[in-house]
Amino acid sequence: MVDCHVGKNMFLIKKPKKIDLKIYNRGVNSPQNFYGLPKKILFCKQCTYTNQKPNSEQEYKHNINKKKPTLKIQADEICSACKIQEKKKNIDWDKRKKLLEKLCDKYRKKNGEFDCIVPGSGGKDSFYAALKLKEEYGMNPLTVTASPHLYTDWGRKNFYSWLGSGFSNYLFTPNIKVQRLLTRLSLEKLLHPFQPFIMGQMYFPPKIASQLGINLIFYGENPSEYGNKSSENEVPTKNINYFTTKNHKNIFISGLKISDLEKKFKLSKNDLYPYLPLKRKEIGKKLNVQYLGFYIPWHPQECYYYASQKGGFEVSPERNVGTYSKYASLDDKMDDLHWYTTFIKFGIGRATYDSSQEIRNKEITKEEGLNLVKKYDGEYPARFEKEIFEYLTISQDDYGDISKLFEKNKMDRNYFNSLCDQFRSPHIWYKENNKWKIRK
Q: Does domain 88-294 have CATH number 3.40.50?
């Protein structure tokens, strides 16, 4: 992996080393598996998922040495996400709807004050959730948003359409220089350019809820619908461990300890605050974090149709890179790079995620899904390349002496490709005739 040389007076993010191509030979027996991924690659017989798919976790614990939790595929060759979908068919949704009505009755403010928070960016899911709660359940949602890295034109338009459909919003935009630096470090250390944004996105809603005294937060669907532990789907609440900790010791951001970020990169506590989970004692006992998808059968395409018809949500004018869809994850140009790095690390890309979901929802067949995966997974994200690489460049003009902590502070395609090669797990990849290929 990319390493940092720490000396008495030096801390250096080194350039990627030359990889040992012997471990990527096609004929290697029992090739090494990185990140603690399952060595035996299994495929779900119903959708396009593999057991290499990473699950959501506590981001502040994530570093290069931590084993990554992944999707479970049992002996029957069916993944946990497909099993959750089957279970949903037997749920009494009328009964669940009454539970939602009861929950809303408990928290609804009759004087029109904000009584719940809906986090989001104005994408189809947050658009749908806020409209549904307001128009059908009489709630008074406050929408909250952690700013993306680089807005797409259509993402920004949908954000304002969301607010234009009748919502107030708390938008938090972090120090852009800090976010750029943390994003570059996260790419170097974890090949995860989305991690700082994910952390800000996860921790901002409970922080603002605590500050404003709003005790109810609604998210959309439970991550168990995409492979997280099935037991999480049995309850309507989000585990507060995702966004809280007992203390801030042993916290990692961008794969580095807070002490390194403060001492070596001169980041202050204010700089790091958006990316830090709340301490448990900061969360009031009254805070109730719920999944709306527990009460309403969550269907991504239906969310899109609802948001489009009632709020003017619009799809992207072009398909998303690495997939065939046009209606999900539209607001951030960094999305393209994020999905590409996911493909590099786990051998599955955005088309796998989209097709698996649509197969489970009976919108496409598995055969169609496999063809879409073969056509689009791993497509290089060229469309916003120039802007993204400028964003990830830590220049001396912008960062002064901090730029000297990078052996190469400029980001370009050659450097990015070399970085990607460091993170290819040999049990997934082999190299033949100067081309990278998936083993299985």
A: yes
Tokens read off for 390: 């400028």
Amino acid at the residue 162: W
Structure tokens at 400: 């002064």
DSSP-derived secondary structure for 243-288: TEES-STT-EETTEEHHHHHHTS---HHHHGGGSPEEGGGS-TT-E
Q: Residue 185: name the closest of 424, 403, 414, 421 by CA.
A: 403
* Nearest-angstrom CA–CA distance, 180 and 186: 10
Residue 212: count other Cβ atoms within 10 Å of its Cβ.
14
Does the global pTM surpass 0.90? yes
Residues 109, 216: Cα–Cα separation, whole Å: 12
> Is-contact 80 71, C-beta < 8 A?
yes
Report how far residue 198's alpha carbon sits from residue 182's, in angstroms, rounded to the nearest whole number: 12
| CB-based burial label for 220 (10 Å; 0-12, 13-18, 19+) | buried
Predicted confidence pLDDT, tens digits, the chain (440 residues): 444 444 444 578 999 999 999 999 999 999 999 999 999 999 999 999 999 999 988 888 888 888 889 999 999 999 999 999 999 999 999 999 999 999 999 999 999 899 999 999 999 999 999 999 999 999 999 999 999 999 999 999 999 999 999 999 999 999 999 999 999 999 999 999 999 999 999 999 999 999 999 999 999 998 888 888 877 778 899 988 888 888 888 899 999 999 999 999 999 999 999 999 998 888 877 899 999 999 999 998 899 999 999 999 999 999 999 999 998 888 999 999 999 999 999 999 999 999 999 999 999 999 999 999 999 999 999 999 999 999 999 999 999 999 999 999 999 999 999 999 999 999 999 999 999 999 98
Beta strands in 75-230 (DSSP E): 116-119, 141-146, 169-172, 216-219
How many other C-beta atoms are found inside a 10 Å radius of the C-beta of residue 147? 21
CA 350 from chain centre, in angstroms, equals 12
Q: Name the β-bridge partners of 163.
A: none
